[in-house]
Amino acid sequence: MTTLDDKLDRVLGAKSGKALETALGLRTAGDLLRHYPRRYAERGELTSIAGLEIGEHATVLAQVERATTRRMRSRRGNILEVRITDGHRHMTCTFFNQSWRERELLPGRKGLFAGKVTAYRGQLQLAHPEYKLLDAVDEGEERSEAEEFASTLIPVYPAAQGLPSWSVARCVEQVLDTLDDPDDPLPEELRRRHRLLDLGAALRNIHRPEDRAAVEAARDRLKWDEGLAVQLALAQRRRSAQSRPAPACPRRPGGVLDAFDARLPFRLTAGQREVGEAVAADLAGEHPMNRLLQGEVGSGKTVVALRAMLQVVDAGRQAAMLAPTEVLAAQHARSLREMLGDLAMAGELGAAEQATRITLLTGSLPAAQRKQALLDAASGAAGIVVGTHALIQERVSFADLGLVVVDEQHRFGVEQRDALRARGGEETSPHVLVMTATPIPRTVAMTVYGDLETSALREMPVGRSPIATTVVPAAEKPAWLDRVWQRIVEEVRAGHQAYVVCPRIGDGGRDEETPDAASGAAEPEAGQDEGGADGERRPPLAVLEVAPALETGPLAGLRVGVLHGRLPSDEKDAVMRAFAAGEVDVLVATTVVEVGVNVPNATVMVIMDADRFGVSQLHQLRGRVGRGSAPGLCLLVTEAPGGTTTRERLDAVASTLDGFELARLDLELRREGDILGAAQSGRRSTLRLLSLLRDEDLIAEARVEAQRIVAADPDLVEHPGLARMVAELVDDERAEYLEKA
Ligand code: ADP
Ligand code: MG
């Protein structure tokens, strides 16, 4: 009999075992049984050809319409073209020098066809597909055939070249036939309460379902495995983070925080006060705060963070603020200094009595400055150290680090947060406040950020100006693009400034700063489904090409500056400074302006090739305008044709300023595997069935169950099956983290 731990080559023989391992990375019977069907073809019902995506490896159940062989002129040989249909649309399968197949691919026969979907002259194709005719009754095959397709639901597996779905199915059958009923990791009592199948039944049902209801029951149960494993890992993580000692930083009256509050030029919003109090209480505690603060761009997160940092300084400790880029770190340091004024001038002439010092620490500081900054951090002379995320990777030492503020966390994963918590003094973990301007849907907050408490700033401080967003279809309406440049000229004449954002730098650098690379937030495959044949798109517009073209063309006479991630940092800083001072009218930039950059006089943001950016990214970008008294205008320039999903996406961004709405849309459009940082295909990924979009209830229930289980049994000694699931999950995460690093 077979157990889930048995190696596949033992169960299935060396040849099949090897094929499954090389093609799909499956090694044990358990691995194979957790390789679930992607969908089920229904016997008698053909697969819709219209639903196929170019580039996908597809398995379709279709009917042969006709087959023709013709000689090739250029080369010797012949080509067999087989037209298959779903009853509505058709596609072509091509075979070289295999005209004998014409004898079995007879019109009217049905079969499964598997291969990579391509497009050729507007026609969908499968080039040299593998196929299996359903009604073929070759000798010897008859029996297995009958068995394999006895059910009306034919499982279609994620397949790989050389290992078609039906071969996987045959291997699964063989394993199921000899499988011992497996030990169920889920406690029986939990299964009963949630009405879940046991593991053995669920595995059988998902691979050989009698009907759709059986599939659903199996999925429900198997999703629980995934949801519970994730939530158990998070519950353990929260527990271990919370059980560490932290540097307590109780509020001290009469210190720098009180002095700052006394001179604040505005009233805190109700939300700022509420979150501020929660944070203050956390900081006073003996265990580390782990909190996520969400709030739209401009909602006033920075003030909340600064007040938290000042409480820590008042307690005689240090705070660090981490930004994703050097430009942002420099800008944060500058704006914190501005907000604090003489309260940030410790050691300088004219400093206030309670003053502290803010030190900027980035990788590209000149050696002497860098040395001084490191010294200030280590000696405690700097109350607040501002730097890039790299600050934690390098072993910068602090005299007494009490709080780390991470700004714009969407490039900052669980592993990095763990690394942060492991920092600080010998024994203690610093408090951590993570801030994000991208609203996070509840399910994502419960999984990807499930190690954090969350709070949100929902109202904007008064005095924000509205932002109008318009899509500019440059291909269909070239005149609109001319109008875009005119608008910029008009705004500049009126004394305002503008941004023009491009997806690429254009200096031919190896790792071009494309939106995909910059944030992982864009959908790399977006647009591919409607562009016809893939791989034919022009490269995205580049800063270094667009800037000179504008300067000598429609924006002649305006002062145009250039900003991107590969400028030396003093140049970056100089450009930002000049733009902030109004000495540059138009800043042509990559997404380095995406977050945190604050120039209230800028009123227009033009985003070129807007379709190359993710929804959240576009939302972030437009938050750069409308920061002053004048209304903001955001123009999304695209060549994507109307009616495509790409254009719908841009229209959605233009239609709402509600960040939560957009976050949900983003979630729908992004592949969930990417959100979780897991590779989508080929490798095992953490969540196979569980959907962050559709399984909100299950995730919430699993979270409650996990909390309860870990509270009673922190190390899961009573639940070895669960402990193992969690260990496998954490292993996978580590492997992915190492691969990315
Ligand atoms: P975020 O970091 O969330 O994008 P900031 O903290 O940078 O937002 O705040 C944006 C702007 O609003 C800043 O100029 C800040 O001084 C101002 N601001 C913050 N809180 C308030 C408030 N309660 N009332 C008025 N203006 C505020
Ligand atoms: Mg900010």
TrEMBL record:
One Pfam family from the record: DEAD
Ranges where the Helicase C-terminal domain occurs: 480-668
Record InterPro entries: ATP-dep_DNA_helicase_RecG, DEAD/DEAH_box_helicase_dom, Helicase_ATP-bd, Helicase_C-like, NA-bd_OB-fold, P-loop_NTPase, RecG/Mfd, RecG_dom3_C
Region span, Disordered: 504-537
Top-level taxon of the source organism: Bacteria
Keyword Nucleotide-binding in record: yes
EC number annotated for this UniProt entry: 5.6.2.4
UniProt keyword list: ATP-binding, DNA damage, DNA recombination, DNA repair, DNA-binding, Helicase, Hydrolase, Isomerase, Nucleotide-binding
Domain called Helicase ATP-binding: residue spans: 282-457
UniProt-listed PROSITE patterns: HELICASE_ATP_BIND_1 (PS51192), HELICASE_CTER (PS51194)
GO molecular function annotations of the record: helicase activity
Keyword check for tRNA-binding: no
Entry-linked SUPFAM superfamilies: Nucleic acid-binding proteins, P-loop containing nucleoside triphosphate hydrolases
Catalytic activity: ATP + H2O = ADP + phosphate + H(+); Couples ATP hydrolysis with the unwinding of duplex DNA by translocating in the 3'-5' direction
Entry-linked NCBIfam families: PRK10917.2-1, recG
Family: Belongs to the helicase family. RecG subfamily.
Described function: Plays a critical role in recombination and DNA repair. Helps process Holliday junction intermediates to mature products by catalyzing branch migration. Has replication fork regression activity, unwinds stalled or blocked replication forks to make a HJ that can be resolved. Has a DNA unwinding activity characteristic of a DNA helicase with 3'-5' polarity.
Protein name: ATP-dependent DNA helicase RecG
The species this protein was found in: Streptoalloteichus tenebrarius (strain ATCC 17920 / DSM 40477 / JCM 4838 / CBS 697.72 / NBRC 16177 / NCIMB 11028 / NRRL B-12390 / A12253. 1 / ISP 5477) (Streptomyces tenebrarius)
Taxon lineage: Bacteria, Bacillati, Actinomycetota, Actinomycetes, Pseudonocardiales
